[in-house]
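Posting here for the record, re: zinc ion.
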Amino acid sequence: MIILGIESSCDETAAAVYSERGLLSNIIASQLEHEKFGGVVPELASRAHELIISTTVKAALDEAAIEKEAIDAIAVTRGPGLVGALLVGLCFAKGLSLQLGKPVIGINHVDAHIYANFIEQNPEFPFVSLVVSGGHTRLSYIEGPFRHRLLGETRDDASGEAFDKIGKLLGLPYPAGPRLDALATNGNPDVYKLPQGLLHEGFDFSFSGLKTSVLYHLRDIPEDRREAYISENLEDLCAGISHAITEVLIRKLEKAVLQTGVKTIVLAGGVSANSMLRGKARVLAEKRDLSLYIPRPVFCTDNAAMIAVTGYLKAGSGLYDDLHMKPFARMPKASPVTG
Ligand code: KG4
Ligand code: ZN
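Prediction output follows.
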């Protein structure tokens, strides 16, 4: 079984090939034109996907050293994401499906982040997953393949969005998450006591209070001294912010483990590349005697290998789609992957 995966939900055009031999190729073309706007511009994203999708897919087939006729199915991201961007990947996949006479498999991007852990490893079910990305923060109980139960999600900003928006307040370029992470490693997380939203309430998350708190703190510093203050305290500020975000994530993950009784935890999404979060997850796993799975950083952020591997697992369960499938912008209440 050879699966071609295509991802175009945001600002990465990506294609990958996965088979029983494992990952055969993984091509990611990042769109850099959004940086000067401080965020992703949907119209620019769609146009850039359209320009490079054919060469990205061709590069994935070449790297895998296969002809397109060898593909058994085409897995493609349906959502959540920017609909104009998703349409480029979906239309390309449908055209290829018609040409080759091979089926399509619609993939939920957020769920695919979880299954990124199956690219190089094999987590045992059931487990608790924490998806932390630019668009989502979701804690779920995963009973078995594509049988998910949502425990909690963010009520406002996603954790990656919090890193990016707060980093922007500190003058860091978009996306601020990776840079803020690097700066935090040299800072002291105890200098700034920042709010840990909804720490003691259920499984939902909230990061907007943290953003407001940093905003107000900086606003109280006279404007002519603000830039110097930020640069003098940047590492400690980044450490305090990273600590506030990751502490809530880890405490709720621990609570979910205790409530469900699972012995395995799985982290996923762009923010799971964060070094402080990875470190705290390792400490939690040790403390509670858990098996911990986190993808390698290249499979944490958006990629098509996670789309291809999810397609491979869905194909194994006979979960195919037809050419009428539509994109979706938001995470459905019951995701199409989970049924
Ligand atoms: O999963 P992803 O590539 O795209 C979405 O599906 O949203 O996640 C991107 C997010 C961005 O907000 C980025 O700043 C964040 O992941 N991110 C990080 C790190 N690497 C990526 N945040 C904190 N620390 C990192 N090392
Ligand atoms: Zn993503």
